[in-house]
């Protein structure tokens, strides 16, 4: 499997996870954006470890759910490891 095929598979998996998170945060037809942000931030970190950039992850979220753009906080702290 080449890198692009791998990343496409990862994107599809995260689309499913993003959608599931969105559904968990929908209550009475309204989205709890704080809860959604709390659900998506760990996914964003995992996606980065699997090769998706933070920007790619954000675009996945906003392409499926444009109504949350500017409302949900997707900022995550980047972990830096210091060389010994």
How would you describe what is shown here?
- It is globular, with a radius of gyration of 14 Å.
- It has helices at 3-24, 33-49, 54-64, and strands at residues 26-27, 30-31.
- It has 84 residues and is mainly α.
- Helices cover 60% and strands 5% of the residues.
- It has one domain (3-68).
- The longest helix has 22 residues, at 3-24.
- The chain contains 3 helices and 2 strands, in the order αββαα.
- Helix 1 (3-24) runs antiparallel to helix 2 (33-49) and helix 1 crosses helix 3.
- A two-stranded antiparallel ribbon has the order 1-2.
- A hairpin with a 2-residue loop joins strand 1 and strand 2 (30-31).
> Can you tell me the residue ranges where pLDDT is under 50 for at least 5 consecutive residues?
none
The secondary-structure element order is: HEEHH
- Biggest sheet: strands, sense, closure? 2 strands, antiparallel
Shape: globular
Structural category is mainly alpha
- What's the N-to-C terminus distance? 34 Å
Rg result: 14 Å
Helix content: 55-70%
β-strand percent reads under 5%
The number of distinct structural domains comes to: 1
Order of the strands making up the biggest sheet: 1-2
- How many strands in all? 2
Supply database-style keywords.
mainly alpha; globular; 84 residues; two-stranded antiparallel sheet
In short:
60% of the residues lie in helices and 5% in strands. It is built from 3 helices and 2 strands.
Please render the helix and strand layout as text.
Elements lengths: L2 H22 L1 E2 L2 E2 L1 H17 L4 H11 L20
Helix pairs in contact: 1-2, 1-3
